[in-house]
Structures are given as C-alpha cells and as structure tokens.
Amino acid sequence: MPRILLTGKNGQIGFELQRSLAVLGEVIAVGRRDCDFANPDVLRALVQDIRPDVIVNAAGYTAVDQAEREPELAYAVNAMAPSILAAEALRLDALLLHYSSDYVFDGRKAEPYLETDTPKPLSVYGRSKLAGEEAIHASGCRYLIVRISWVFGAHGDNFLKTILRLAHERQHLEVVADQYGAPTVASLIADISAQLLVECLQREQIQGTYHLTAAGETSWHGYAQTIVRAAQALGMPLTLSAEAIRAVTAIEYPLTAARPANSRLDTRKLRQALGTTLPQWQIGVADVIKQLYGTAR
Hints:
It is a single chain. The protein is built from nine helices and twelve strands. Helix 1 (12-21) links the parallel strand 1 (3-7) and strand 2 (26-30). It is α/β, with parallel strands linked by helices and 297 residues long. The strands form four sheets. A six-stranded parallel beta sheet has the order 2-1-3-4-5-10, sandwiched between helices. A two-stranded parallel ribbon has the order 6-9. It has a two-stranded parallel ribbon with strand order 7-12.
C-alpha cells in the first residue's frame, strides 16, 4: 500500500481527504502547525523525511481579498510550495495531486471552462494558483491537477455556513446574482480525488489536469435561497426567508479582489476518465445542512 503525504489536513477538503484516502494506504496528514508552507527548507525536509509514494496537496492560501494585500505570502503558499512538492515528487518518483481553482480564468467565457482553455486570472489569488499549476507542469513530475470551485462542507468556514448564520440574525439580505458556478461539497471532492488517484496509479496515461465540480449551476443568490429553503424544510428556526434575499450585481457589492463572473467548469474529461456521473449540487447542500442541524440540536 502506498505511503501518502496529505497537506492541509485541517482545511475543508483536507479534513474529508483523511477519510477518503485512508482506504488507499498509510496517510501521514500534516497541517499548518506541522509545517510552514511559506518556508521552503521546512517543506522540503518534511517530504524528504516521509518519502511518500503519493503527495496530496490540499493546503493553500485561500483568502482571496487578503491576497491583494499579501501577494508575497499568497505566492509562497500557492506557487512556491507546489513547486517544491513537484520537485520532490520528481526526485522520489512520487505522484502529486494538487488542487487549483476556477480563479485561474477571467470568467468571460459564455460556456463552462474546459481544461484546455487559456487561463487569464483577474486577481493575485488567481495568478498565484496559476503559477502553482505552471510550476508543476514544468517540473516533469507525475501529477494530477484538480481545479475546483465554490467549495463548502460541514467542516470549516464557507458561504453555506455564513448564510445559515445570517438567516438566524437578519430579516433581509443582499447577495450577488450575476456570478455563476456549481457549489461543490468537500466530501465529493475527496471521494472523487481518491478514485482519480487509484486510476492514475494503475493507468499513468490519465495524469494531467481535471475539472471537478458538482453537476448543475446557480448564482450566489440562487445558492443562498436554496440554503435557506433547505434549512426551513428541516425545521430550522430562521428569521430570514428565501424571498427576503435581494438579488444584486457584483458592481453593487464591491470586493477587493475581482471575481470571475463565470466559474462553471466542464467536467466531461473527469467523468469519462472515471466512468462516473456527478451529483447535482443541491444534494450536497441538503446533506451538509442535515449534518449541521443534527449537530446543533
């Protein structure tokens, strides 16, 4: 059984990966306290000490707006660290699985993005994630790059949890309605990632870049309404109704970093490689709310 080094164990995806990867081999999971990703020597020493057969990099600098103020740190974690992991993977002949983002695109395409579409990031965060991808491509190591978007789960901070909190506190809310994507539950990303790893270890020709999101699409506004309706259906005592969530434009709700208007990712390549289908995004929303409501009761 392979030895698997998992980074970012305390993040939304890393938390779920500890479960999904456990059946594949020996998992050594590390978090921020175990390894400073902004320190190349510490990161290099970690990999050399563990000598993994597989590296799964779920660590990342994900504070999109803060990255505009901390570009050096964003690049250290999102670009330099993957470069080091790729170099060490090449030296060990290990397989590297790395997570990237829809933010590598500018969101101006009318259709969902293919893996082969030319990236054009709008923000420091997006540029740092693209730099990480490019470093892995250039390294010569065996790799899987999985681009994801609109991640949520029962563990960690995310849009779904924020909307649930506000739905207990407010009677009115404004949410952007002109940005589109597919909310994707972290447990789905972890489970599909494990399947992809198994296939790649058996068939090296499927290595490369893949898009992974749940099926379907919505806006942030539609997503928020679905969250509130699903919570109401479970009997959550909310002060906010779905009808009281007002749709606004991104221009009306300015943020420090520019966001892609179209975050939809085409998943055909992944589905064909694994011979699988992906569930509709609403299923994950309902499942997570059930988990959270059960915990809160």
